Amino acid sequence: MSNEIVVVIGAGGIGQAIARRVGSGRTVLLADYDQKVLDSAARSLDGHRTESRRVDVSSRESVRALAKAAAALGSVMQVVHTAGLSPNMAPPDRILAVDLLGTALVLDEFGAVVAPGGAGVVISSMAGYMPPPLPREQNEALARTPADDLLTLPLLQAVRDSGTAYGLSKRANHLRVQAESLRWGERGARINSISPGIILTPLAQHELDSPVGAAYRAMIEASVAKRMGTADEVATAAAYLLRPDAGFVTGADLLIDGGVIAAIRSGRLKLPGMEA
Question: Where are the domains of the chain?
Fold first, then answer.
């Protein structure tokens, strides 16, 4: 029996799809803040060896305990971080705590336990490509400030709305993954991120049914694909980045959005607050 461990943080639709794609023959450690989501995910992975553990990614102590639990199970070969809050789900301070700080803490703590030859994927968002370019010093601050000090950065103190908090968090994910790839590389491991567009999950449906639903539909219509993506399409991309086939890929972000960002940058799509 293999003692290789796949850790999936955020056990919703995308996390489950990735777990199904890469978890065969390994132990899948599912982690989520919501116990009901954890229980549902474990049932959906019938036939896989699974373990479950609650985690609050905004707490270093909680993430550290999860990393130690994973390492105690065996060799941590794959780490998948999907946990996050959308702009319509929480106020800006909570989005920054979960989407920005939470990702930094996962990179920190799992970068200390990932096995040689291992790999990680952070599920970010195409929203990371939407904010206007930041000054170099702000990019550096988001990329390299110690995780425990991130939320005190001056540029975050001015954030007053959830959309801005979300976009900055996802931009920070890209920068943080690139910076942390050096430390993961010292352990013989790789780390990358994926920036999905609108993916057909319960979370996307929640957004479509919310006041921002019209903007979501406009993005779908203006995109090249003219449809939402699927969790399985994200899982296919994640499986590539996690496997040895992608051995020369680290510190990168893969945008899979059906062409939404291309439409914004070309001027085909103009949405308030979304710069080309």
Answer: 4-203+230-257
Q: Give the C-alpha separation, 97 to 59, whole Å.
A: 9
Considering just the CA atoms, what is the radius of gyration of the chain in Å? 18
pLDDT in tens, 77-87: 999 999 999 88
In angstroms, rounded to a whole number, what is the distance separating the alpha carbons of residues 178 and 91?
Answer: 27
Catalytic residue, candidates 33, 129, 166, 216: 166
**Active-site residue identified among 33, 129, 170, 216:** 170
The single residue listed with the structure tokens 């921002």 is 212
**182-210: pLDDT as tens digits:** 999 999 999 999 999 999 887 777 778 77
User: Is the distance from CB of 57 to CB of 63 less than 8 angstroms?
Assistant: yes
Indicate the fold that domain 4-203+230-257 takes in CATH. Answer: Rossmann fold (3.40.50)
Residue 7 belongs to what H/E stretch?
Answer: strand 4-9
